[in-house]
Amino acid sequence: MADSSPTTGLAVRRPQRADARRNFDALLAAARDVFADQGTDASLEEVARRAGVGIGTLYRNFPTRQDLFESVYISEVEELCAAARALADRDPWEAVVAWVHRFVGYVATKRALLEALSHASPVFRACRAEIEVAGEPLLQRAQDAGVVRADLTFDDFLRLISGITSGTFTDDAQRDRVLEIALDGVRTRP
Q1: pTM as predicted
Q2: Does some domain include residue 6?
Q3: Lowest-pLDDT range, 1-15, 44-58, 75-89, 141-155?
Q4: CATH code of the domain covering residue 42
Q5: Which of 100, 127, 132, 163 falls between 20 and 30 A from 119, CA-CA?
Q6: CB-based contacts of 152, cutoff 8 Å, min separation 6
């Protein structure tokens, strides 16, 4: 069965039966982890093994490797956009900071999947548009509250955070310090 994803508007094939949906979701979670750990050349058998299903179940849900890449990517974007919506009622600055930290987690998977997805692909373009639709209101709300620089565009903001997350750090603590420095740079002070 094909559902239209609420985030991307792309057709995502999801099973109707509860057990089949559990397998589908387990495959997405396993693929996300395997691709983040091993890159997109990782064994699909490893994905199936981690999901606790057979390789036939993987191929029934995702006939091609590309189908799996796109579904994992769309799933990550859906979660990122849902996080933005869930933060809409929080303090404007806290909402921006919380979403940035969620975005950092999203980028870890995105980096591996970028090997497989072209920036010109319809999936990539649709997902980028949805990230803007979900995240830009958080930034705008923080700017309207006077806690974020007014001259910062959402594109600037995404590039800043993406640039930081694409760097190599000695450990997560160093990455988090650099991220906090960047956030301090976009914040206004009374």
Answers
A1: 0.80
A2: no
A3: 1-15
A4: 1.10.10.60
A5: 100
A6: 139, 143, 186
